[in-house]
Batch of 4 targets.
Target 1
Amino acid sequence: MIKIYMLRHEEAVPRNARGLDRDRALTPEGEKKIAASARGMARLGITPDRIWTSPYVRAVQTARAAAADLGMADKIEEKKELSPGADPGEIADLIAKQIGEEGSVMIVGHNPDFEQLIAWLISPRGDANIDFKKGALALIHAGLPIKQGSASLRWLMIPSQMAQADQ
């Protein structure tokens, strides 16, 4: 069984007409929230084999914060496939090819992509309605081959729930 942890980036600075979307960084509040969530993840024993992140700044910052508390700073890889507009089938193929039957990965990325990916993974028609908040973390279990509707959503936590595990 493959474990897929999905972590949505935390709050980022607003879009600016002069800057690129890919360069938007986390706000100070977003940095604070992901730090608390990451400590909670560590206390909950979340231990993926590796962390993949979108190359966008806000996702990389979120991945680094999680990796620091999980003792995985050297296991982060940027994946262009996780950039905004990602195709659920391509992400599923990437996971299937690179993780193996008993592996685990934390992917860090964006909405609406993550809502669409979860729906694709757990619903044969891809029509599950998932509300994936900024900073939320989900766990999906999938077997090989990963096909649309073949996985199960094990849990979904919002940042305040992860932060409570830190207390």
Target 2
Amino acid sequence: MRHAIDAIIREMNDPRIGGTYAVTRADVTRDLRWAKVYVSVLEDEKADEMIGALKKAAGYIRHELGQRVDLRYTPELLFQRDRNIAYGVHIAQVLKEVAPKEEEEKDGAEE
């Protein structure tokens, strides 16, 4: 389901949808009536606009999903922003800044 939704979004010609993003997860309820689709957007300034565009296009995406995936019911799609990847990038940057300072302190202590 996640791969199919990602492919549909990439084929859309909406200028609000683009940039660096990934469909990270799709949680479907047991009865296949609802699906929460988590989208990670790395550009913070585009994130709100993109999630809003996906919410407006949910009906179209659902229709396309029903044609591509053989399911008894095609779930209603709820798009959510996933901040895990952006948070991981932030932590990696902080660690890069801290590591050189620690090495300088070790070198200074050895002398």
Target 3
Amino acid sequence: MFLNLSKKTYKKLFFITAGIVLVLALIPNSDIGTSSDKLNHIIAFFTLSLLLNRASSTLNARLRNMLALIIFGISIEVFQYFTTYRSSDYKDVVADGVGILLFQLLLSLYRAYKHGRAYMRGV
């Protein structure tokens, strides 16, 4: 069911989710998510990667999306630097990158598996 949404719907879901991530990153510390700040970053950027990937289809778009998400993560840290109640940490951007790369790795493995199964059916 979730995979059958239109690209336009995935774009809307992406922007809604990105807005929520931004708000959560800029409000005073909340108890939303896991007890690990870095795991929260990984989950958030994995999810953003999934939504943005489903909204696009080419390799160039995937690369552009990854760069845009890293810039988004860096921007969040810059915004946090200017608050008095949040701290900016380069390790958060690293965790963001881990979430992005984890999604891309799992997507690539899934596609390779799917391609291999299709090849085996044709043999």
Target 4
Amino acid sequence: MDTKNIMIVGVGGQGTLLASKVLGYVLLKQGYDVKVSEVHGMSQRGGSVVTYVRYGSKVYSPVIDKGEADIIVSFEELEAARWAEYLKPGGLVIINTQKIEPMPVITGTAVYPEDLTNKMKKASADVYAKDFLSAAEKVGSSKAVNIVLMGKLSTYFKEISNETWQEALEVNVPAKFIELNKKAFEAGKNL
């Protein structure tokens, strides 16, 4: 199998690293060679965070270059646009339409760009954009948006059983949050 590439992008504190662990676990359970690489800047201060997840028969490098990502899962709208050049033509972008203003916008030196989702659609990407944050809040915690997004992503992996995804949650999520995260995962699958 050729190597497939998934980028998980967001802002520090949104749970991108947990999401990449869950995804990596699921792919390993399917028998793929998996490489996960975390690349993040000022993640503790709300900076951009990106994780590369590569899988296939044999993966030699954890890095995804521009134009190579099959899927980008974006936890925030501007982050989807920031990393769009990494998407291959016809690739899929799953976008949480939440807007988190970066520091230049907060300080008034820049303006948050408008209509980003439609701009990405025009750039030949297959775009699925939803308010995943509201879905997370409905199940009990805005912090579960990462797992809601993983639930949606799971719908693109028909060959991976729901049981494998559930096991990944049980292994990677602290015990006191498992039930909440299972509800969040189901909410994402059903969006």
